[in-house]
Design brief:
Length: 131
Amino acid sequence: MISNSIMHKDSGLRQLRPKLALPTHHATPEEQFQNNSLRPILKLQHDLLLVLFEHYIQKRKNTYATLSIEQKKAWIDTTLKTDQKFRNLMAGTIIGHFTADELRFYVQNEAEVTRRLCNLLIQRLQSTEQH
C-alpha cells in the first residue's frame, strides 16, 4: 500500500518533468516506459548529466578534447558500455526521479530498462558533440 506522502512525492516528480509529444500507439510496455518516463527524466536532468560527464572527463585527465567528433561519439559509447561505475552514476541520476510505480516497473524489467536507459544516455551525450 502506498502512503499519502509517497503519492504526493510521485505527483510532484511527474509535475517537474517536461511534457514530450511522443507516439504511444502500438508500443510495448518497455517502449511506453521509455517514452513516458525515461525520456522526460533525461530531458529534465540534461544539464546535470552534462556536468557529471564533464567531471568524468576532467577527473581522468583524458585527451577527449583533442578527439574528432566521430572519435568523441565512439569514446562516449565505449565509456558508458564499459565503465560500470560511471554508467551506474548516470543511471542513478535518472532512477532517483522514478515514482514508486516506475521503480516497481524498473525492478521487474531491469535488464531491458537499463539497456534502453544506457542507449538513451549515449545518444544524449553524443548529440551534444555535434556543435
